[in-house]
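We both want to read discrete structure tokens more fluently, so let's practise on a single case. Would you supply a protein for us yourself, any chain you care to pick? Would you write everything just below, so we can both look at the same thing?
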Amino acid sequence: MKNIIATLALSSFFVFSACKKTDPKDAGQTQTETQEPQKFIVDSVKVNDSTKISDSLSVQYSSKFLVFPTIKDKKLLDSIYFGNKGINDFSKEGLQNLLQKEKNEYFASIKKDSKDLASLPFNQDWNSDFTMTLKSNNNDFMHIEYLSSSYEGGAHGNYNYAERVFDLKNNKKVELKDITSMPKNKMEGILMKNINKLNSGTTDADGEVKNSDMLLVEVIPASDNFYFDDKNLYFHYSPYEIAAYAAGDIVIPVSWEDLKGTLIPTFKERMKIK
């Protein structure tokens, strides 16, 4: 009889324990909570100021940086701010201070040469402008366009585009080899074939001028200045890079069909290219 009672007591203990383990009140203590993906945040900082160097010369400075609080990878951040070496503080405050420092240095450099600029033949307004623009962020490929422009005397100002795409999954700048295995000479042939697909808008007395009529080179290089969308790969060339200044900047599209058979499988799958 004692053995039966002991057995029943032990059985009751295990039943109670089993019930206790599945008690909903304790479920939250034994399970790991699922964390939501961190939201991608974009902010910006800007400096816009001007100073008078002499009676005949005024100088204006403007610069805008994008700020990415959720990006923590130092190598990736160095690549995003490739024009500014040695940045250690990528916070909004840190980048704002950097722009202020660069503005002060720019004004100081112009003032240093002011003796040679004091007797300009007529009043001039010089400028230095820089802008970072987030063009797209699809499939964790972030495309940033960098535009630098300036005028410091002469017949006209100058401007330059830099296009960069960043792989946010792998924390790196996208290289052409990450997209296609097409040989360099074949890509150059496609660029020449497609040179007039997106005309720059240049005109003369006879109407629109083709990009090909203003080329300064015999071979168009497949440069690192590219970006892409779901239809094409685009190469962007600044004035004087491949054509006369009058041509402005030129964009040459290369379709995914043009690159058929050479697209890197992982890239093709991620971009959902058929």
In short: Residues 1-25 have pLDDT under 50 and may be disordered. DSSP finds seven helices and eleven strands in the chain. The radius of gyration is 30 Å.
